[in-house]
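Appendix C. Worked example: FAD-binding oxidoreductase
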Amino acid sequence: MTDQRLERLRRLAPELRLLTDAADLEHYGRDWTRRWTPAPLAVALPASADEVQSIVRWANDEHVAVVPSGGRTGLSGGAVAANGELVLSMERMNRVVGFDAVDRTLTVQPGIVLEAVHNAAREHGLAYPVDFGARGSCSIGGNIATNAGGIRVIRYGNTRNWIAGLKVVTGSGEVLDLNRGLVKNASGYDLRHLLIGSEGTLGVVVEATLWLADPPPPTQVMLLALPSFEALMQVFAAFRARLELEAFEFFTDRALHHVLVHGAQRPFAEDYPYFVVAEFASGSEAREAAALAAFEFCVEQGLVLDGVISQSDAQAAQLWRLREGITESLARHKPYKNDVSVRVSAMPAFLAETQALIERGYPGVDVVWFGHIGDGNLHINVVPPEGMAQDVFVAQCEQVTDLLSAALARHGGSISAEHGIGLVKKPYLLDTRSEAEVALMRGIKRVLDPNGIMNPGKVFDA
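Step 2, the predicted output written as structure tokens:
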């Protein structure tokens, strides 16, 4: 702890935990992208909103950039600290602050992991319905920073839909108490929604009040084998018309291959090119009959080749593992990832164009597709060929992403559905947002972060 700036921070916040060991700097200075070499100044682990405010005010005085950090499960480089920034890790601020039975809200600190939020809501007979495979490691603060979606957007929407209030330390060091859990509040601009999805570029969430929902109904999970990409949207339409869908996810045979190698159980004796995991409300004869009718209709139309339906919670978890285990099974390959979205109505045309584009751009390369087809979100993972240098591989992928981004612009889509822009997608922002929009974003940042210390270089350049 020889840096004089850090000594001054220690004097301002004497109880603050600061880390400077090389191993800690590497661990906290990167996210799941693994494309940048971490090089932070230090890692601060505050235990209170007061300490966060002291850190931000110190950073303004010392002209030190701050990178807010949650579970660092992001895939866009949004939590990377590679240029001497102070990493502001919220992992010690991980408590449930309070529960209000009348308002049905749960107030939490930002470092609490999503799974702990689920458990806390369940203890009160309610549910926090936002969910994703990384629930055991991602934090609520990170979810808010990227407006995370996940596997149940089709039923419950994104994180934004469930934020009743936020306490935030802005880039200037001011504390804002936004919305305070009100259901109706027509008193000017709703700054709460400005902070949601801002990727730590405007301020730091220090407390969040979450709306809770009724527990979900009993559900069953069905795994379907499909003959083609083109059948996906037709199967979705058939199931959505007949069932109360909780989730509708797809993946390819290459995704299944990697998950099976990673230890999952093979679902069918035969090989098929495409798969869907559908979770739907059950618990009555009418609902079960509707599920069977949807399946039989799709089989008769040649849209589904095979299927299995869960008969227990354990079997449902087994089927979900085939979808939720994809990202973990690919991690060791360090794939290049695209996370894109279009309107659901535009999905058939976009799928057709994108499939052809990917086949031309990556001949002979292992490309793994999966996604939340019911809300128009595709994940495209490109596995680097064996022996190819990482910089050469990334350069090739970026050429294809240029074409993909242009296709998204033609279909009115977004280069980032749920992982944020960060560093990875910054070159493609103008294909999703207009120059006028980006100029307004820069102006907003100057107001809330006048010295430009909050996660600089992410989303757009100042």
